[in-house]
Amino acid sequence: MTLIKSISGIRGTIGGRVEDNLTPIDIVKFASAYGTWIKQQRNKEDYRVVVGRDARISGMMAQNLVMNTLVGLGIHVVDLGLSTTPTVEVAVTLEHADGGIILTASHNPKQWNALKLLNSKGEFLNASEGENILTIAESNTMEFASVDQLGKITKNQAYIDIHIDEVLALPLVNQKAIKEANLKVVVDGVNSTGGIAIPLLLERLGVHAVKLYCEPNGHFPHNPEPLKEHLTDLSKAVVKEHADLGIVVDPDVDRLAFIDEKGEMFGEEYTLVACADYVLSNTKGNTVSNMSSTRALRDVTEKYGCSYEASAVGEVNVVELMKKNNAIIGGEGNGGVIYPELHYGRDALVGVALFLSLLVEKNISVSQLRKSYPSYFTSKNKIELTPSLDVDAVLKAMENKYSDEDISTIDGVKIDFAESWAHLRKSNTEPIIRIYTEAKSQEEADILANKIIGQIKDIVKI
């Protein structure tokens, strides 16, 4: 079964049977529930929703279904066409819209697509809002508009440029210094909308961009998750072109990773660390990331005499804690940078602009910049369990086992040691415990992970 209904949207593989895959009927059903929820929020005459998509092959089909479903509900649609997740988020607020939908399955392979849902602030829905929409979808109580009350579709394909304008208007983006640095950058747009947005941003910043896989045709040239093992072509191109760095984003452009001038990974976990370093060097304030993100952000934050706190995993949880703590920057260790000065969403365009500003102001290479931060290494593992097993009981047993350590149970069990940590959390969709560890060396991280895995196996007698 490859249809996943969750509080954050609906995701699945294109084709197949209704309710088992992401079919046109499932797309219409879920878009109807979302539109109905939008109309329940406020009693007014005109409703407006912004809709955009990444470059997936199924994107146009899915977007047309979504938009015309909303039209059938009497909701006006602002059609961004090919866009990015952060661009849609920005557009919702600038359009004073009631919500937004992005057609993207993020880093999933090309056979996947999804409806990601936004509220009127251009932010992802919280748990109760998502549950409400799931309930509406299953109730079949949606009521559609009469012929004279149908919505209208308005095209606006200028929003990537508008988004770039908003980024460049940020006080901390040092356009002048970036332009004077005469940088050369190779961009891997994984043949999606990052191939449009990132080169346009770099052009506006006066950076020479060498395009690699920047044709937005949806044919991903490699696994679209921006991890080291998927970026060998980009690493080779950076060295061949004698470039200052490489930039890679995922298909919907909310995750960002860098390659240094030697063709080595800067480290996806360190994208946020570097951007936070730059922001904190100019403006003191709090930071937030999720519990599975590197401790290096805490170290950098405390270096400036500021406070760091970790949230449960998930962008909506990070944003909620950022607002509570008045954090000036935050995000996730998967390369997601959230800079509230523009909007509360992971945004690779903002990340690029802040990172390049830091790099040129320090006047050092990307590899030198990476060496300036504390080095941590991660190990990511999982244990598959039988469906009948009480996963919560297993996590509770591990919590008790390490009760003398610094423990957090906000999201699974996070065990903080002096020089390392382990985070154990269950999957919401399958009987799996995910085990993330971090330490001062890869060997130490792997040893800690194997130790934790062994202890879990002893508990469940695997």
TrEMBL record:
Keyword Metal-binding on entry: yes
Alphabetical list of Pfam families matching this protein: PGM_PMM_I, PGM_PMM_II, PGM_PMM_III, PGM_PMM_IV
GO terms of molecular function: phosphoglucosamine mutase activity
Top-rank EC class of the record's enzyme: isomerase
Keywords annotated in UniProt: Isomerase, Magnesium, Metal-binding, Phosphoprotein
UniProt keyword annotation of Magnesium present: yes
Residue ranges annotated for the Alpha-D-phosphohexomutase C-terminal domain, each copy included: 392-452
Essential cofactor(s): Mg(2+)
Alpha-D-phosphohexomutase alpha/beta/alpha domain ranges (all copies): 8-141, 173-263, 270-374
Domain of life: Bacteria
EC number: 5.4.2.10
Family matches, as PANTHER family: PHOSPHOGLUCOMUTASE (ALPHA-D-GLUCOSE-1,6-BISPHOSPHATE-DEPENDENT), PHOSPHOHEXOSE MUTASE
NCBIfam families: Arch_GlmM
Family: Belongs to the phosphohexose mutase family.
Protein name: Phosphoglucosamine mutase
Gene name, Swiss-Prot/TrEMBL: glmM
